[in-house]
Amino acid sequence: GNSVTQMEGPVTLSEEAFLTINCTYTATGYPSLFWYVQYPGEGLQLLLKATKADDKGSNKGFEATYRKETTSFHLEKGSVQVSDSAVYFCALGSYGNNRLAFGKGNQVVVIP
Amino acid sequence: DTGVSQDPRHKITKRGQNVTFRCDPISEHNRLYWYRQTLGQGPEFLTYFQNEAQLEKSRLLSDRFSAERPKGSFSTLEIQRTEQGDSAMYLCASSLLGGGRSGEKLFFGSGTQLSVL
Questions:
Q1: CB atoms within 10 A of CB B113
Q2: For residues A100 and A92, is the Cβ–Cβ distance under 8 A?
Q3: Counting CB atoms within 10 angstroms of each CB, which of A35, A49, A106, B26 has the fewest?
Q4: Are strands B88-95 and B112-116 parallel, antiparallel or unpaired?
Q5: Would you call B25 an interface residue with chain A, using a CB distance cutoff of 8 Å?
Q6: pLDDT tens-digit profile of B85-107?
Q7: What is the pLDDT of residues A44-82, one digit of tens each?
């Protein structure tokens, strides 16, 4: 079945540092891939998505590229801000399957 | 901005009691989803509706759980005879049915945090 694996543990980094959160997936067919973000006290919201291989999703300075050869969708941001502190979830959805499969999430804490 | 709203935000109950949660989706959205999230885990799919029809249920949804969306607008999730293992955040999401291709965007509510004592 479909599944998503995110790197273990929270991520703590200083403001303006480079952020990478790893995400790999297992899926049949050609899934769509997503990053959702959950800010403190708020609901999950879509950060970016990619619907086919080699697509790059981007939003708010974040980017992720759909790599079919490595089954990955790593999230990156070149210079984080304190306001980027949140929990980030990688997710997968596939055609004809109405559920999203989420990873466990990564807590990101950005220190001034 | 009328996003997805869930009520209540928090619910504390004793084991064996019944609880009901409500979700009001974005008004023009015809798909509504329920997910469950436990501490340190990502959301897990429970069930989904297209308009008033419940089209899919996860094996996580035991017989004690029932969801309805009677008029294709708001939805309720009821848990009967609650157990401590039911303690979790229950998330509702809605979306607008696209053209049948995957990749539709879900809009999530803030969730109902259930604690079963």
A1: 16
A2: yes
A3: B26
A4: antiparallel
A5: no
A6: 999 999 999 998 754 445 678 89
A7: 999 999 988 999 999 999 999 999 999 999 999 999 999
Question: Which residues does chain B have within 8 Å of residue A95's beta carbon, measured at their own beta carbons?
Answer: 100-102
Query: Which letter, b or e, does each residue of B39-75 get, where b requires 16 or more Cβ atoms within 10 Å of its Cβ?
Result: eeebbbbbbbbbeeebeeebeebeeebebebeeeebb
Measured between alpha carbons, how far is B37 from A101 in angstroms, rounded to an integer? 12
Distance CA A37, CA A22 (A): 14
Q: Which residues of B touch A41 (CB under 8 A)?
A: 110
Beta strands at A106-111 and A3-6: parallel, antiparallel or unpaired? unpaired
**Residue B86's closest CA among B111, B114, B112?**
B114
CA-nearest of A26, A13, A2 to A88 is A13
Size of interface A-B (CB pairs under 8 A): 66
Task: Give A4-43 pLDDT, tens digit per residue.
Answer: 999 888 999 999 999 999 999 998 878 899 999 999 888 8
Query: Which tokens hold the place of B89?
Result: 């955040």
